[in-house]
Amino acid sequence: MEGSLPRKPCQFHSVAGRPLCNDAFLFDIVGFDLDGTLLDTSGDLAAAVNHALASVDRPQLTVEQVKPMIGGGARHMLKQGLTATGGYDEAMLDSLHAKLLAYYEANICVHTRPYPGVIEALDALAAKGVTLGIVTNKIERFARTVLAELGLTDRFACILGGDTLTESKPSPMPIHAMVKLCGGGRAAFVGDSVFDIQAGQAAGLPAIACSFGFLMQPVAELGADAVIDGYDELMPTLERLGA
Questions:
Q1: How far apart are CA 191 and CA 243, in angstroms?
Q2: Distance (Å, rounded) from C-alpha 198 to C-alpha 200?
Q3: Residue 100: which pLDDT band, with cuts at 50, 70 and 90?
Q4: What is the three-class DSSP state of 209?
Q5: Backbone φ and ψ of 237, nearest 5°
């Protein structure tokens, strides 16, 4: 299935004055999830959840408790936070969801940082002429804001959020859209949740799981085509999957 996508014509890029072609590298496009994959956003997301919980006198959650709740979007995360602290009804969920989003938008990049090795891995892919994209279940404007705060926006040919299209991960729709927006060709997808792996594989792409992300279950249970324990393993893993 992963070999069914046609290769686009070779694109030349200049790296330190030297033109490179990506013919030697078998992926034209690599897509990434954002939270728990490229960026450790757990501190800021946990703070937003706890702000919402505090407004209704619920106990606070630790960052480690919040991490497995991340991945399905803010509302999904809040539902789990409320369930863990006493339950909710839809009216409460609606009200607290608005509070969570407002707080998060105002405090979006206090603790958030790229994972170790991310910048070097993105540089290595760019040097191979690979086009990069992001497909996240985060609201698109939040994704763009945090990437801009970190100076990363220009590295990606497309940034698709959970509200960009009519469907979000685990639907393959945004993965297909990413491939199209990135110019077409052979692609792979990197993520940390079951939503990422299911979406990538449903779109016909090899899917790589990050063992250091916000896992909802043991990484071995995700059914990924490969697992990386750090970004120093990404390029060799892609080379192996592409061979």
A1: 21
A2: 6
A3: very high
A4: strand
A5: -65, -45
- Taking the CB of residue 15, how many other CB atoms lie within 10 A of it? 12
pTM: 0.86
Segments of 182-225 assigned E as strands: 187-191, 207-210
Q: What average pLDDT does range 61-74 have in this prediction? A: 93
Residue-wise pLDDT tens digits, 122-179: 999 999 999 999 999 999 999 999 999 999 999 999 999 999 999 999 999 999 999 9
180-201 per-position pLDDT tens digit = 999 999 999 999 999 999 999 9
Per-residue pLDDT at 44 exceeds 60: yes
Task: Report yes or no: 70 and 100 within 8 Å, Cβ to Cβ.
Answer: no
Position 24 scores a pLDDT of 63
What is the DSSP secondary structure assignment for residue 134, as one 8-state letter?
E
Compute CA distances 57 → 43, 86, 96, 178, 216, whole Å.
Answer: 20, 11, 12, 41, 26
In DSSP terms, which residues pair with 15 in a beta bridge?
18
User: How many whole angstroms separate alpha carbon 89 and alpha carbon 79?
Assistant: 10
Segment 37-44 mean pLDDT: 98
The β-bridge partners of 113 are: 40
Q: What are 85's two structure tokens?
A: 């602290």
- What's the rounded Cα separation, in Å, for the pair 182 and 156? 9
Which residues are the active-site residues?
33
3-state secondary structure 8-68: CCCCEEEECCEEEEHHHCCCCEEEECCECCCEECHHHHHHHHHHHHHCCCCCCCCHHHHHH
